[in-house]
Write a structure and sequence with these properties.
Radius of gyration: 21 Å
Strand content: 5-15%
Largest sheet: 5 strands, parallel
Helix content: 55-70%
Number of helices: 13
CATH superfamily of the largest domain: Glucose-6-phosphate isomerase like protein, domain 1
CATH architecture of the largest domain: 3-Layer(aba) Sandwich
Order of helices and strands: HHHHHHHEHEHEHEHEHH
Shape: globular
CATH topology of the largest domain: Rossmann fold
Number of strands: 5
Oligomer: single chain
CATH class of the largest domain: Alpha Beta
Number of domains: 2
Length: about 280
């Protein structure tokens, strides 16, 4: 069974129902030998409802059960697992393979209508506040400067108190808050999200593909893959790359809303921003 799929199951395990955990346990133990099983057949084997099997595959980020089975079968062995005697070029190749697998999972977790909704929110906003805590704060800062490059008035501050003060000055009819949180359940980003909702400000979340407190309060969400296992440096590699993929996709999607407008503002966006800060 591919390591990424197993890690993903373990990350989501606390959020599964008891019946969904039976499906998860079976796939972890028998995924290497899984044949062309249907959702009905798997439900029969495990004595659970077919709806449980379908719901499990959707929580894992697949639009259809067949996609999950095909992905498990094509994944093969533990080829991305870094072994004790691997040379450094082999290590690089395995890290690249893991990135590729995780990025495919991120793409599969997002629908075109979600991208369209997120891009519309950003395109329509005059002022945008970006917020993230700790590692996600660096990603939020990257998003902020990418928006500035498009000519947007965007701000990012690691200080949650200062950010909430700035938030209260926003106009609910023409501004936006974007919260980046890989897990979607940390208290600081969820608190920022709830503060935006309380002020009536539209909220775009970039967070884990599973159901979580941040996605539940967001106006619109873009989905990434968080792997909670931090037992080695290798276990969570690629998670930030998934967030970067969604940030860059968001920027490109906003650009597509009005290519002429954003092409005209792009080159001068960063220069203008620095000029304003020097005054």
């Amino acid at each position: 069974m591919i390591a990424l799929f197993t890690a993903r199951v373990k990350s989501l395990y606390p959020k599964f129902t008891m019946a969904e955990r039976k499906v998860a346990d079976y796939l972890i133990m028998n995924g290497d030998e899984i044949e062309d099983v249907t959702s009905h057949e798997l439900a029969r084997r495990l004595d659970v409802g077919q709806s449980t099997v379908m719901r499990f595959s959707k929580k894992m980020g697949y639009s259809m059960f067949g996609e999950m089975v095909a992905d498990i079968k094509s994944s093969g062995d533990l080829s991305t697992e870094i072994q004790n005697g691997d040379g450094l070029f082999t290590v690089m190749s395995k890290v690249e393979a893991k990135y590729h697998e995780l990025l495919k999972s991120v793409i599969r977790s997002n629908r075109e209508e979600d991208l369209g909704s997120a891009a519309h929110l950003v395109d329509a906003a005059d002022t945008i506040i970006c917020y993230g805590c700790m590692e996600s704060g660096l990603l939020a800062s990257h998003l902020c400067w990418s928006l500035v490059g498009l000519g947007k008035s965007a701000y990012c501050d690691a200080d949650i108190i200062q950010t909430k003060r700035r938030l209260r000055m926003l106009d609910p009819t023409r501004d936006l808050v974007i919260v980046v949180s890989k897990s979607g359940d940390k208290s600081e980003p969820v608190g920022m999200a709830k503060a935006a909702v309380a002020e009536g400000i539209p909220l775009l979340a970039i967070c884990d593909a599973s159901d979580n407190p941040l996605s539940r309060v967001a106006t619109s969400s873009l989905r990434v893959i968080e792997i909670a296992d931090r037992s080695t440096p290798m276990t969570s590699m690629g998670v930030d790359a998934g967030v970067m993929l969604m940030i860059d996709t968001l920027i490109a999607s906003v650009y597509q809303q009005d290519r002429k407008k954003y092409a005209a503002s792009y080159r001068g966006g960063i220069v203008a921003a620095f000029s304003e800060r020097r005054e």
